[in-house]
Amino acid sequence: MERRNQTSVSEFRLLALTEDPEMQPILFSLFLSIYLVTVLGNLLIMLAVTSDSHLHTPMYFFLANLSFTDICFSTTTIPKMLVNLQAEIQSITYVECLTQAGFVLVFASLESFLLSIMAYDRYVAICHPLRYTTIMNPHFCCLLILLSWLISLGDALLHGLMLLQLSFCTNLEIPYFFCEVVQVIKVACSDTLINNIVLYFAAGILGAAPFSGIIFSYKKIVSSILRMPSAGGKYKAFSTCGSHLSVVSLFYGTAFGAYISSTFTRSSRETAVASVMYTVVTPMMNPFIYSLRNRDMKGALRNIIRGMPALQ
Predict the structure, then answer these.
(1) Which residues contact 122 (CB under 8 A, 6 or more apart)?
(2) Confidence tier at 154 by pLDDT (50, 70, 90)
(3) Euclidean distance between the first and final Cα of the chain, in Å?
(4) What pairing do the DSSP bridges indicate for beta strands 91-93 and 168-169?
(5) CA distance 92 to 98
(6) Chain mean pLDDT for the chain
(7) φ and ψ at residue 9, rounded to 5 degrees
(8) Which of 14, 16, 58, 64 has its CA nearest to residue 44?
(9) C-alpha dihedral (253, 256, 260, 265), degrees to nearest 10
(10) How do the domains of the chain map onto residue ranges?
(11) Cα–Cα distance measured from residue 126 to residue 204, given in angstroms and rounded to the nearest whole number
């Protein structure tokens, strides 16, 4: 098989969303609608949190950061998918591919960290309510966000630098709708042992650690709630965790589904469709989950909508 150095690679070919020309306008409209709903919904969440003084709490501060992450996550993948739907050749340049793969890694890791931080916030609020304002002070909250960004960016930078050292063959087809680090490594011709070791080690640490933190937090939360004497107190405590649990289930459920699909399914299209669920659908659903299940958020959004005519 012919081999080429990475500096001579000009572009990669991505998997086409559909081979049917009649389906392309439908899919274009669908993904465009999803992207607009995602951006608008998450922007409304951010606007509600910043404009309503009742939402100036650590929980909603983390939620605003999660919404920002979801906007960036969707922007990393969907616009290129829309461009390719209008093009005859599903391609992406070498630089664009590595950049996209890096940003996908950054925002996926960041979302995982934020969900873990939000679980810890609920743990402190329910299990240590008298110490909540002391523990979750603004300085500590900002430090958690900063550390999440630094770790996510450092992980993506490490993988990006290692990808630059790889050589690629003439077969540069990535069986995904977007570039992902794992898929880029698979099409390389040079030895990828070190890349795979670092990749799975980092995924184990950065993926398992936040998820373990979520499990630990909710184990303590459930234990604390069950010891509450009143049914009203139990319901109120559970209701404050409902939205977060829904988002955690959606994110980790779709990500785990994509992993299972890539491991046990030979069809690249089925695997790619599974990956779209956590990169496209999850960021769109998060604003609906939080706005529909949270009374304070619904009130803040209503105030924003009522204030729109006055602004005009």
Answers:
(1) 59, 217, 218, 221, 240, 241, 244
(2) very high
(3) 64
(4) unpaired
(5) 10
(6) 83
(7) -75, 125
(8) 64
(9) 70
(10) 3-311
(11) 29
Classify domain 3-311 by CATH number.
1.20.1070.10
Under DSSP, the state recorded for 169 is E
Classified as helix, coil or strand, 51 is helix
Q: Which of 229, 273, 231 is nearest to 254 (CA)?
A: 273
Amino acid at 258: A
Secondary structure, 3-state, 241-290: HHHHHHHHHHHHHHHHHHHHHHHHCCCHHHHHHHHHHHHHHHHHHHHHHH
- What confidence tens digit (pLDDT) does each residue in 95-118 have? 888 899 999 999 999 999 999 999
**262 pLDDT band (50/70/90 cuts)?**
low
Token couple for 199: 């990749």
Buried b (16+ CB within 10 A) or exposed e, 164-177: eebebeeebebbbb
Return the percentage of the chain with pLDDT > 70, whole number. 87
Sign of CA dihedral 12, 95, 17, 189: positive
Which amino acid belongs to residue 262? S
Predicted local distance difference test score (pLDDT) of residue 109: 92
Q: How distant, in Å, are the alpha carbons of 100, 243, 250 from that of 227?
A: 47, 22, 28
Q: 244 with 69: CB under 8 angstroms?
A: no
How far is C-alpha 79 from the chain's CA centre? 16
Asked if residue 73 lies in contact with residue 279, where contact means CB atoms within 8 angstroms, the answer is: yes
Q: How far apart are CA 214 and CA 190, in angstroms?
A: 38
Residue with tokens 């209008």: 86
Q: Over the Cα atoms of the chain, what is R_g? A: 21
